């Protein structure tokens, strides 16, 4: 079995040591950070399959770290550990881009199960990063050449932004992608267009790829939240 790399960011030494030992016994390779700035430095310099992240940290807190990671388009799964167990804190962590949120004290077996599931997600992200071609319902998308062939054989030239949005939706197939995440990932944090722009892109995708654009089955709008792709 290949060793998966986990970054454990936890400043409580006893908890850190216990988690590190148990994760290593499960076969994972564990790197450590005890404060925010060092965690960010390691994330920028190395690849990890999972980041386990405490919220209350010296220097930079876990929420700010999570936001920075996602704004830099790093898709590594993040599991937040926190003594803050209010729903508002949980929602904040997930909104900023965390994949899971576990409150202290927690059951060790539950933690290891969540780690295993997030590692599986990380593996699929790594594979999708090399996605160059995608087929669905007789449509073919060529991400590298920015082209597509529709189910009726029409050749479509895609803009770079169209290809980026298609890739984001396809890589997260069957999951709702919020408008905020689309804007951050495709357009960049500092260049937010009008959210109507996303609607126009989705309308174009329906025109390109749907059998009946007025009754879409692939590019679905979730009112007030965002969009999802299903093939």
Would you kindly provide a written description of the structure presented here, covering whatever features stand out?
- A hairpin with a 3-residue loop joins strand 11 and strand 12.
- The model has no long low-confidence stretch (mean pLDDT 87).
- The chain has helices at 13-25, 36-45, 62-71, 87-95, 108-128, 160-171, 179-187, 196-209, and strands at residues 5-9, 29-33, 50-54, 78-82, 100-103, 133-136, 139-142, 147-149, 155-157, 177-178, 219-222, 226-229.
- Helix 2 (36-45) runs parallel beside helix 3 (62-71) and helix 6 crosses helix 7.
- The longest helix is centred in the middle third of the chain and has 21 residues, at 108-128.
- With 231 residues, the chain is α/β, with parallel strands linked by helices.
- The protein folds into two domains: 5-128, 3-Layer(aba) Sandwich (Rossmann fold); 136-229, Winged helix-like DNA-binding domain superfamily/Winged helix DNA-binding domain (Arc Repressor Mutant, subunit A).
- Helix content is 42%, strand content 21%.
- The protein is elongated, with a radius of gyration of 20 Å.
């Amino acid at each position: 079995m290949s060793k998966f790399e986990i970054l454990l960011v936890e400043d409580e030494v006893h908890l850190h040591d216990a988690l590190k030992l148990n994760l290593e016994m499960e076969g994972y390779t564990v790197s450590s950070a005890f404060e925010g700035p060092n965690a960010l430095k390691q994330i920028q310099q190395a690849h990890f399959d999972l980041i386990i992240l405490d919220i209350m940290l010296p220097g930079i807190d876990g929420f700010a770290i999570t936001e920075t990671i996602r704004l830099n388009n790093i898709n590594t799964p993040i599991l937040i550990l926190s003594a803050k167990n209010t729903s508002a804190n949980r929602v904040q962590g997930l909104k900023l881009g965390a994949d899971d949120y576990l409150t202290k004290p927690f059951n060790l077996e539950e933690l290891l199960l969540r780690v295993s599931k997030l590692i599986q997600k990380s593996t699929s992200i790594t594979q999708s990063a090399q996605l160059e071609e995608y087929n669905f319902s007789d449509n073919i998308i060529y991400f590298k050449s920015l082209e597509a062939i529709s189910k009726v054989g029409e050749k479509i030239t895609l803009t770079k932004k169209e290809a980026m949005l298609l890739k984001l939706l396809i890589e997260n197939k069957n999951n709702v992608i919020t408008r905020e995440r689309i804007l951050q990932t495709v357009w960049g944090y500092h260049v937010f267009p009008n959210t109507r722009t996303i609607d126009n892109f989705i309308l174009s995708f329906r025109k390109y790829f749907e059998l009946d654009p007025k009754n879409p089955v692939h590019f679905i709008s979730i009112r007030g939240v965002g969009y999802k792709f299903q093939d």
